[in-house]
Amino acid sequence: QGQLVQSGAEVKMPGASVKVSCKASGYTISYYGLTWVRQAPGQGLEWMGWISPYNGKTNYAQSLQGRVSMTRDTSTTTAYMELRSLRSDDTAVYYCARGLSSAYPGAFDIWGQGTVVTVSS
Amino acid sequence: DIQMTQSPSSLSASVGDRVTITCRASQSISTYLNWYQQKPGKAPKLLIYAASSLQSGVPSTFSGGASGTDFTLTISSLQPEDFATYYCQQSYTTPWTFGQGTKVEIK
Predict the structure, then answer these.
(1) Nearest Cβ partner of A44 from B1, B96, B98?
(2) CB B84 within 8 A of CB B101
């Protein structure tokens, strides 16, 4: 049915970068979109961007443009999200999530367990 | 960006109650509307996609409806495991935005 397993918690200084991994199993990563969503402590869900299934093109939230990169490695079935120039308000749980289908990629049926990223001096 | 506004922000209900949560889009999104359930410390879970399609494995006590830019999530008979926060999300156009959430608490 599929599973997404994310890398472990990170603590970073302001201005640093973080790279979170998301390993897919049980399905072919290139057939489904992969979205990243974050959730600040006690807050709601924020869409960060996604990688489209066929050509790997990316689409990022305007608020993160220039600081975020999303990539995938089909050989290792792993997706990555890198966020640069970290600020304290980037402290959040970061989730990767699979799109439901190629025809309906904007609903997310499989989620990673979440990666806590803490930005603090 | 399309704004998604949920109401209420929170509600208290009893086991067995019928509960309805509303989500309004700031512009037309056709039926590109999805609902998620999130419990503390857990990832969200997809309940409903395309406004009214029940995700596989989700109990039939959950249902979704649509009228113009207004969408509803209804729980026909609230169960103890349904106490959680619920989010709507539009997937009509990027950025795929979420509502602010509705917390369903035990009365």
Answers:
(1) B98
(2) no
Contacts for B40 with CB less than 8 Å, ≥ 6 apart: none
**Could you read off the pLDDT tens digit of each residue along chain B, which spans 107 residues?**
999 999 999 999 999 999 999 999 999 999 999 999 999 999 999 999 999 999 999 999 999 999 999 999 999 999 999 999 999 999 999 999 999 999 999 88
Interface check for B15 against chain A (CB to CB < 8 A): the answer is no
* Mutant choice from A109, A110, A113, A116 vs B, greatest count of B C-beta within 10 A: A109
Report the distance separating Cα A55 and Cα B97, nearest Å: 23
Q: Name the residue among B91, B94, B95 with its Cβ closest to that of A107.
A: B91
* Nearest-neighbour CA in chain A from B27: distance (Å): 17
Across the interface, whether the CB atoms of B50 and A107 are under 8 A apart is answered: yes
Contact present, A60 and A66 (Cβ < 8 Å): no
Q: How far is B51 from chain A (nearest CA, A)?
A: 11
